[in-house]
Amino acid sequence: MILDLDIGNTLSKWRLKDTASSEIRSRGAVWTREEWRPGSDIPDLDVVEAVRISSVARQTVLRETVGLLRRQVGAVYVARSTAEALGVTNGYEEPSRLGVDRWMGALASYQLAGGCCSVDCGSAITIDFVLPGGRHLGGYILPGLRLMKESLQLGTRNVAIDPDSEADELLAPGKNTVEAVNHGIYMAAVSAVNRIYSEVCDREGVALPLLLTGGDARVVSRGIRVPHAVWPDMVYGGLEACFPLTAAERAGRMSGAPRVPAPVALEKIRAGLAFSMML
């Protein structure tokens, strides 16, 4: 079995993948911690032959996690943000300072779709662009839905947005304080993603495929105005592409990769952007 770990500052996700069949056998999530308990926080390591890690947590968390795993597992692979990988050139002035989850998402999206816009809707919403040919432009970071809600300090942080709500409903004025907060932060998030996508495509002269991931991807997806796909395992896809361990991975197949819809024509993106600027 292969254990894939996506360690965030708050939440850590894991999955077990069968080495022979490349099928996902189980998955879960726990709060990020420095001392992991095998068999409780993460699966029983007796069945694991290799581990792949993407971590944006504190270095002490990563160091302790890797130390534990290397004592019990033969091979541990840790992803790093580099100046270049898999045909993609990192757009950061200091490549190592790009969040490795963003780098994994950009690499996975590029392998799947060529030039792309990858959006991670987690604690923060991150938006990264890779042009056809592999030049990573850099990206944008804004507060996620939960962080925006908590910043208002109105006691509504535990009332989540229903991911099955229709976009028209979420974009309408709220009829009570909870609705007003939820609809306001939703409007802010989807408006930012829509505008940033259009602005960058217009400036670069290319309509890019759009891929979303992260815990709030489903709800944010409902407000995105251009064709796109949701890929929950995008970061894992980056780990698979960087450290291919199964026959399917070596053939370039990433687990759970969605069908990528063709983007709208650049002329339509520019027309919509011009119209919004007139309002």
TrEMBL record:
Pfam families assigned to the protein according to its UniProt record, in alphabetical order: Pan_kinase (PF03309)
Signal sequence annotation: none
Pathway where it operates: Cofactor biosynthesis; coenzyme A biosynthesis; CoA from (R)-pantothenate: step 1/5
Matching entries from PANTHER family are given as:
TYPE III PANTOTHENATE KINASE (PTHR34265)
**Compartments, record wording:** Cytoplasm
Q: How many cofactor units bind, and how? A: A monovalent cation. Ammonium or potassium.
> Does the keyword ATP-binding belong to this entry?
yes
Which organism is this protein's natural source? Litchfieldella anticariensis (strain DSM 16096 / CECT 5854 / CIP 108499 / LMG 22089 / FP35) (Halomonas anticariensis)
Q: Which GO terms describe its molecular function?
A: ATP binding; metal ion binding; pantothenate kinase activity
Describe the task this protein carries out. Catalyzes the phosphorylation of pantothenate (Pan), the first step in CoA biosynthesis.
What is the phylogenetic placement of the source species in the record?
Bacteria, Pseudomonadati, Pseudomonadota, Gammaproteobacteria, Oceanospirillales
Q: Which reaction does it catalyse?
A: (R)-pantothenate + ATP = (R)-4'-phosphopantothenate + ADP + H(+)
Binding positions (substrate)? Y92, G99, V100, D101, R102, T177
Tell me the protein family, please.
Belongs to the type III pantothenate kinase family.
The subunit structure is: Homodimer.
Instruction: Quote the SUPFAM superfamilies the UniProt record gives.
Output: Actin-like ATPase domain (SSF53067)
In which broad location class does this protein mainly occur, judging by the first location in its UniProt entry?
cytoplasm
Q: Which UniProt keywords apply?
A: ATP-binding, Coenzyme A biosynthesis, Cytoplasm, Kinase, Metal-binding, Nucleotide-binding, Potassium, Transferase
Gene name per UniProt: coaX
Q: Which residues form the active site?
A: D101 (proton acceptor)
Protein name (database record): Type III pantothenate kinase
Chain sites annotated for binding ATP: D6, I7, G8, N9, T10, L11, S12, K13, S123
Record's keyword annotation contains Kinase: yes
